[in-house]
Design brief:
Blueprint lengths: L1 H33 L14 E3 L6 E7 L4 H17 L3 E7 L6 H11 L5 H10 L1 H4 L10 H4 L8 H10 L3 H13 L7 E4 L2 E2 L5 H12 L2
Parallel strand pairs: 2-3
Antiparallel strand pairs: 1-3, 2-4, 4-5
Length: about 210
């Protein structure tokens, strides 16, 4: 009985040490990420889509997947942040195509840049996820019907640009950068290199405001 107790205590100590090592490793990893320049790769690339006047040099980098339900939900929070602070910050969009039809939607998004309609198209893609991205019944081609409702969007031109555009290199670089930053899922956000720890309205606003008013 005494030996069994000793074994249990030893296992508990080993488990505690293991947890401590994991936490220590994660903290060191986060510190290393925060030391990287948040004004260039791996946070931002030349091809990255950006919005905002950025008068106060605050970069909000978001890794998204257009087919990700959580991204669609959290998009409302990011839009509200932009509405409040568009003069002071810059929103930077990066991709992590983890779903079956993500690339298809990303091609549409990149093609929409030709008409300066990226934000409106992204809104519609997220808004209509229930139509084109149903689990086990995905029909990305239905996006074209949904996009008819976007004001001022030239759908004929969008289709033509969609057919010509190649996003392979964009997706490759974004995935490489995501790996360097230990990003596995979406949405994942960084504010001036600091990772947002929890996807909530308050946490995002608090983190951004800590950079704006430090």
């Amino acid at each position: 009985m005494k030996n069994k107790s000793i074994v249990l205590v030893s296992l508990a100590i080993l488990f505690a040490v293991f947890i401590a090592l994991v936490i220590s490793y994660e903290n060191k990893s986060n510190q290393n990420i925060e030391k990287l320049s948040y004004t260039s790769a791996p946070f931002i690339r030349e091809h990255s889509t950006v919005f905002g006047d950025n008068k106060k040099n605050v970069y909000v980098v978001e890794f998204i997947d257009p087919e990700c339900e959580s991204c669609a939900l959290y998009h409302k929070v990011v839009k509200e942040l932009y509405r409040n602070y568009y003069e002071d910050i810059q929103i930077v969009v990066r991709y992590l195509d983890n779903h079956k039809n993500s690339k298809y939607a990303i091609k549409i998004l990149e093609a929409s840049k030709k008409q300066n309609m990226y934000q409106a198209v992204l809104d519609k893609i997220y808004e209509s996820q229930g139509v084109w991205a149903q689990h086990n019944n995905e029909k990305p081609e239905l996006l074209w019907e949904e996009l008819k409702d976007v004001p001022s969007l030239n759908l004929k031109k969008l289709r033509a640009d969609f057919e010509k555009i190649n996003v392979d290199n964009i997706l490759k670089l974004d995935r490489e950068d995501a790996t360097k930053l230990k990003v596995r899922g979406t949405p994942t956000l960084f504010v001036n290199g600091e990772k947002l720890k929890r996807l909530s309205y308050k946490d995002l606003f608090d983190l951004v405001e800590s950079k704006l008013y430090k």
